[in-house]
Amino acid sequence: MPPTGREVLRSRVQELLEKNPVMVFSKSYCPYCDRVKELFTSLGKEYFALELDQCDDGSSIQEVLHEMTGQKTVPNVFVNKTHVGGCDKTLQAHQDGTLQKLLDNNSVTYDYDLIVIGGGSGGLACSKEASALGKKVMVLDFVVPTPMGSSWGLGGTCVNVGCIPKKLMHQAALLGQALKDSRKFGWEYDEQVKHNWETMRDNIQNYIGSLNWGYRVALRDKNVRYENAYGEFVEPHKIKATNKRGKESFFTGEKFVIATGERPRYLNIPGDKEYCITSFFYDEDYILTCRCDYINVPTTVFTPMEYGCCGYSEEKAIEIFGEETLEVYHTLFWPLGMPYPGGDNNTCFAKIICNKLDNDRVIGFHVLGPNAGEITQGFGAAMKCGLTKEKLDETIGIHPTCAETFTTMEVTKSSGGDITQKGC
Questions:
Q1: What pLDDT does residue 288 have?
Q2: CB distance 330 to 409 below 8 Å
């Protein structure tokens, strides 16, 4: 496909940065632009200024610069392909000495401004953002095969062997259970129903393959170079990249981000490597986020009867706050329609843990039932906002739903009251 107009403009900007050590995107009537030009003149440094108000496509170039740097205004200054900023930031860089370092002709040059080792969600997000800010970026991603010889494509654990295939297999299990339950609702069928593991596996792998390809296209569109190679540091700013055929290449970078994630650990018992399907189930966003609230992390176990939680377990809450400061509300319940009307009303479970010394704030949330993940995500946001038992009681529940259970909880664990349910 021919490049789009925006891609042509981005290439033009990159070409200007490659050719001109000091590049000023300017407007001829702007006094702030004049101050920056006067600064470089006083330093005896040649610069090239592109006057956007005198270019037919100047406004479009300014939009591209905004996408690349996050800066809407001029002057927009680059030194040796490094984005300095506008007038104030350029003057500040001159005062603190960073501008002179950038202008130093003897400064070391590298193949890439940033090399990211690891092509999971964190590495991909980092590399694309850096490229959008005008950096020259490379991503290395290589999956060491498992003991069974399995490997996978770009996207990391979550996409290839974690969250995505896990949820799709979970859906397959739910469909199987729904087939059984459908008879209770009057559905009749004579054909023998059976499950084909190979069909499920192939369709899931095809879907994941489409995601892998999409990530590669996204990197290409962002001008990020991707290498399916194993990275090893050989010098502080130099790495060796070895591809699956054993070919070695060497690259230098000014900065590096290591986003290699984790691998599952085997149980070291007979058959673990031969018969177990392993994965490292975690949410990469939480692990990669440097101000993360590690207490209120919504978590779900995707079994046919899902379990979701957020905040403290009852045991941990007692250990930290003391049993006398807590009030635990709990109840059994059964969602209407599963598996059939008139069934057992006491298979699912809900519990909240409240801190009596903090306005009965909910510090622990637990639910066992269908769609627990969807329920827990919403309550996780509420807990971040300081959810209290009073606010739950004031909330009108949607009937009939599983989540409404949390708006009508009355029985405390300390009371020893009956938590079984007789109906909806």
A1: 44
A2: yes
pLDDT of residue 282: 46
Q: Give residue limits of the domains in the chain.
A: 5-107, 114-275, 295-407
pLDDT given for residue 382 in this prediction: 96
Quickly name the fold that domain 114-275 has.
FAD/NAD(P)-binding domain (3.50.50)
Domain 5-107 class, CATH top level: alpha beta
Decide: residue 345, CB within 10 A, 0-12 exposed, 13-18 middle, 19+ buried.
middle
Which segments of the chain have a pLDDT < 70? 1-3, 105-108, 277-289, 291, 337-345, 422-424
What are the DSSP E strand ranges found in 122-181? 137-140
Going by C-beta distance under 8 Å and a sequence separation of 6 or more, which residues neighbour residue 4? none
Q: Give the side-chain half-sphere CA count within 13 A for 335.
A: 18
As a whole number of Å, the CA-based R_g of the chain is 29
**399 in active site:** yes
Structural fold of domain 295-407: Enolase-like; domain 1 (3.30.390)
Q: Whole-model pTM above 0.85?
A: no
Which two three-digit tokens encode residue 266? 């085997």
Q: Active-site residue among 83, 94, 195, 399? A: 399
